[in-house]
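YM 10:42: HAD family hydrolase sequence, as discussed on the call
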Amino acid sequence: MKKKLKAVLFDMDGVLFNSMPYHSEAWHKVMKSHGLTLSREEAYMHEGRTGAATINIVFQRELGREATQEEIESIYQEKSVLFNSYAEAERMPGAWELLQKIKSEGLVPMVVTGSGQLSLLERLEHNFPGMFKKELMVTAFDVKYGKPHPEPYLMALKKGGLNADEAVVIENAPLGVEAGHKAGIFTIAVNTGPLDGQVLLDAGADLLFPSMQALSEAWDSLNI
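YM 10:58: structure's back
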């Protein structure tokens, strides 16, 4: 397959940036302030969903109803403000090295994220100069359904003019893995959070690595 490969589709949070600890903390604190429960670990399980979808899951579970549009906008705004108040997330160790390998092979790196956090999107160019083209990115602003629906990765294939067998997905979240798998794309999981690796394999990962560093070191010898 590597002979056919034209592009590598990267999730952003937990893959390119070590930002998930901040996301999980922000979700936990904001939900608690509204009398709702979303544990830090559960936030990792919802990673990749749109903010609205995550809020609705909690509302349906605890209040037995959907959140109103006003509630969604208010809670997501609070979460974003809190997230942006934390120290800037560092580049994930191994991500830059892997991107350099990918570029040197003539492959196109693309970002496919459920994030609508403009602060992180704007930092991609600063942290990974010359790696990503904005017109090839898929974010929360582009999709109707979001992960675990395959729409974000199907949209990435469309934007890149790619067939499913010409791309590889790199994900750290169960829902993201599920989305890549459903889109028919070879999906590599990197377990950069607190979840059991089996959760990622159960979601449909074709390969599992314990870190981006490990994936970067193994990249040249991958038989995909």
